[in-house]
Design goal:
Layout lengths: L2 E8 L3 H14 L4 E7 L13 E7 L5 H14 L4 E6 L11 H7 L7 E2 L6 H6 L18 E4 H8 L9 H11 L6
Parallel strand pairs: 1-2, 1-4, 2-3
Antiparallel strand pairs: 4-6, 5-6
Helix pairs in contact: 2-5
Length: about 180
């Protein structure tokens, strides 16, 4: 199964984006990253990071929803079976295993799957991750979000408007299409 990571970021978050990319390279090296850069300087080292397999760049911010919507058709066309949205301020650690969520997203009738992982080593020390999937209408992006190619197509069927909370919008699209979010 081919799966990849979708990361959107803005130019004021270059250091955290590099940390996220380095941690992905360390703990999930087989997962290529499709990156959408907004407002990055042309000489940013992010452009040359080896974990990035596809890149879109905008001179100004277009928002997280529109940035993801711009990248999704490319990932679908590239044959990804599963996609994981991560935040550009996430640092994966040894305990961060995205694979259970990726595999869960492939189950027929499943929409968005929350990864339920902690974003930093400090958060991990406070609350251990749980590998439990429970049905919920709205799945928060925090910790990452996995979904199948068919769920991506459902999301792409909706309008590209300036949504403030794309996780809520995407959850609603999947839920209204009859999928179970977890």
């Amino acid at each position: 199964m081919k799966w990849g990571i979708l990361l959107v970021t803005t130019g004021d978050r270059e250091v955290s984006m590099l940390t996220a990319l380095d941690s992905i390279a360390k703990y999930h090296p087989v997962a290529g990253v499709t990156a959408v850069l907004q407002g990055y300087a042309p000489d940013s080292p992010v452009y040359k990071h080896p974990q990035i397999v596809d890149l879109l760049s905008y001179p100004e911010g277009i928002g997280p929803h529109s940035a993801r919507i711009a990248a999704l058709p490319r990932m679908v066309d590239d044959g990804y079976d599963a996609i994981v949205n991560l935040d550009d301020d996430m640092e994966l650690v040894a305990e961060t295993d995205l694979r259970p969520s990726v595999l869960r997203s492939q189950v027929k009738g499943i929409g968005l799957v929350g990864n339920n992982w902690r974003r930093t080593p400090g958060m991990l020390a406070k609350v251990k991750p749980q590998r439990v999937f429970k049905n919920q209408a709205i799945v928060p992006t925090g910790g990452g979000l996995a979904y199948s190619r068919s769920t991506a197509e459902v999301i792409l069927d909706g309008p590209d408007l300036d949504y403030l909370f794309d996780d809520s919008e995407w959850s609603l699209r999947a839920y209204l299409a009859g999928l179970e979010n977890q």
